[in-house]
Design goal:
216 residues, BirA Bifunctional Protein, domain 2, six-stranded antiparallel beta sheet, 7 helices, 17% strand
C-alpha cells in the first residue's frame, strides 16, 4: 500500500491509551490500533526501507518484567533499523506526532567508555561539528546523560556537553498536521539523510573502539 499519511485517529488513540493503559481498553480498541496506527506505519516503513534498510516495527506490548511500571502497552508505535548493533535510525508515532532520530544506544557494558574515549581525542571535534550543524538545522540532541560532567573531565573541556552523554538520540519532530500528509514520508527520509554523516562517524570511530574493548 502507498503511504497516505497518519490519520488523526492514531494520535487520539495514543492520547486515550495514556489515560487508560489497560488490557480492557486495548481489547475494545484493537481495531482502531490496527487501522489507524499499525497499517499506516507499515506503509511508511515499506516506503522508507528500500533506502535505509529493512525497518522492523516494534510490538505494542511492553516488557514489564524488569520495570516498576506495569502498564501493559507502549504509548507509541516504534520502528527502527540498525546500521550496527546499538546504532541506527529510529521512528516513532505518539500522541503528539512523528519523531525521527538517529541513535547510539548500545547496551554493551563498554559502550560509554568507548564513546567517551573517542570523543576526548582530537577527532572528537569532528563529532561536535556534526552535532552543531544538525542543531542549527533544528535537530535536538537527547539521550541518557549525567547531571554533571564525567569524573576526570575538566569543566572547560570543549566537548564537555557531549561527554556527559551515555547515549545519543538526535532528531526532530513532525506535528500531527504534517504527519497526516503523504509528504511526511519524505520528511522522515530527509531527516535521516541529514543524520547519516553523524551515524557514519560513530560507526567509523566509536564502534571499532567498542569492538576492541569488548574483546579484552
Amino acid at each position: 500500500m502507498v503511504f497516505t499519511g497518519i490519520p488523526d485517529e492514531a494520535f487520539d488513540f495514543y492520547r486515550e491509551l495514556a489515560l487508560d493503559n489497560s488490557k480492557s481498553f486495548w481489547q475494545r480498541h484493537r481495531d482502531r490500533y490496527e487501522r489507524a496506527v499499525r497499517e499506516p506505519m507499515a506503509d511508511l516503513v515499506a516506503e522508507l526501507s528500500p533506502e535505509f534498510g529493512e525497518l522492523r516495527m516494534l510490538r505494542p506490548q511492553r516488557d514489564t518484567r524488569a520495570s516498576n511500571d506495569k502498564s501493559p502497552y507502549k504509548t507509541y508505535q516504534g520502528a527502527l533499523v540498525d546500521l550496527e548493533p546499538g546504532l541506527g535510525f529510529w521512528l516513532h508515532l505518539d500522541a503528539s506526532g512523528l519523531h525521527a532520530t538517529g541513535r547510539f544506544y548500545s547496551r554493551a557494558p563498554q559502550a560509554t567508555t568507548a564513546y567517551r574515549s573517542v570523543v576526548t581525542e582530537d577527532r572528537g571535534e569532528e563529532l561536535q561539528t556534526l552535532v552543531d550543524g544538525l542543531e542549527k538545522l533544528g535537530f535536538t540532541l537527547g539521550g541518557v546523560t549525567l547531571q554533571t560532567r564525567p569524573r576526570g573531565v575538566p569543566a572547560d573541556h570543549p566537548r564537555v556537553g557531549l561527554l556527559r552523554h551515555r547515549t545519543l538520540d538526535i532528531g526532530r519532530d513532525c506535528d500531527r498536521a504534517a504527519a497526516g500528509r503523504p509528504a511526511a514520508a519524505e520528511w522522515v527520509a530527509q531527516t535521516w539523510r541529514e543524520l547519516r554523516p553523524t551515524l557514519e562517524w560513530i560507526s567509523a570511530n566509536v564502534c571499532p573502539r567498542l569492538r576492541e574493548l569488548s574483546t579484552r
